[in-house]
């Protein structure tokens, strides 16, 4: 592959294979999510072991992990219950995690598809949000993530090149964090995320298997390095139902409140 090209890619890229413990934990998480949605107890250890093709000891180990995170509540002689509030913290709005890991924490099997990848002029609406001293052409990568076999998110990623550098070879199947790091020799330290909703366009709706004009969650993200360089922009459109995102915020202590 020559310099200054976008790499080729396969239609779908599954997540790296799980080891046995990860597979069992993922399977239990799937049942945890389904039980939370149905407001029902989790199946018993014996039934979970049958469903996941493992031993009860392996199930107990997975449940112990989830209990330590507060996701399940176990009491001697009673059904194991799911805490739906704690489950929401598996997808934290205020914590940067690869999207495939977010889906896996919810008990889904994630995979990703590259819809398109190309070199494009810097969009006028994005340029003011990014570091100014860049080449006029950017890398534009559009990905579609799947949760099991259901489309979960469409992400459009714009990554500029430092001014004065040659157009590089880019593998669009790699993480946008890795691509930006390679181009700028700096890792992303934090992100500015603006959340909202959007009406699905004729292009977006079929990709998410939703009606045109339907409402979806939308994030705009700018990645910032420790030195303050803003080196990528993301526009993500999320399926309205598959993942619930949460964040934790602190509350002032009562003795610091001024009463009027």
TrEMBL record:
InterPro entries found in the cross-reference section: Bact_HTH_transcr_reg (IPR050679), Chorismate_lyase_/UTRA_dom_sf (IPR028978), Tscrpt_reg_HTH_GntR (IPR000524), UTRA (IPR011663), WH-like_DNA-bd_sf (IPR036388), WH_DNA-bd_sf (IPR036390)
This protein's name: GntR family transcriptional regulator
Location of the HTH gntR-type domain: 18-85
Gene3D superfamilies in the record: Chorismate lyase-like (3.40.1410.10), Winged helix-like DNA-binding domain superfamily/Winged helix DNA-binding domain (1.10.10.10)
Keywords: DNA-binding, Transcription, Transcription regulation
Domain of life: Bacteria
């Amino acid at each position: 592959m020559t310099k200054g090209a976008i790499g080729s890619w396969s239609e779908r890229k599954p997540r790296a294979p799980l080891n046995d413990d990860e597979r069992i934990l993922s399977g239990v998480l799937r049942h945890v999510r389904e039980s939370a949605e149905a407001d029902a107890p989790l199946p018993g250890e014996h039934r979970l072991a049958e469903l996941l093709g493992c031993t009860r000891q392996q199930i107990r180990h997975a449940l112990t992990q989830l209990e330590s995170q507060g996701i399940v509540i176990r009491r001697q002689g009673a059904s194991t219950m799911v805490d739906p509030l704690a489950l929401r913290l598996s997808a934290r709005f205020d914590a940067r995690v690869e999207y495939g890991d977010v889906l896996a924490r919810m008990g889904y099997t994630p995979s990703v598809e590259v819809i398109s990848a190309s070199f494009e002029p810097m969009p006028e609406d994005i340029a003011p949000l990014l570091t100014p001293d860049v080449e006029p052409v950017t890398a534009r990568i559009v990905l579609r993530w799947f949760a099991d076999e259901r489309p979960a998110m469409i992400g459009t990623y714009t990554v500029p090149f430092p001014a004065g550098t040659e157009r590089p070879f880019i593998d669009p199947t790699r993480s946008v964090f890795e691509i930006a790091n390679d181009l700028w020799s700096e890792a992303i330290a934090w992100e500015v995320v603006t959340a909202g909703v959007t009406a699905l366009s004729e292009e977006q709706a079929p990709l998410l298997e939703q009606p045109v004009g339907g409402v979806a969650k939308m994030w705009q993200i700018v990645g910032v390095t420790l030195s303050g360089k803003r080196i990528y922009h993301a526009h993500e459109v999320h399926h309205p139902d598959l993942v619930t995102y949460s964040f934790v915020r602190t509350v002032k202590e009562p003795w610091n409140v001024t009463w009027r």
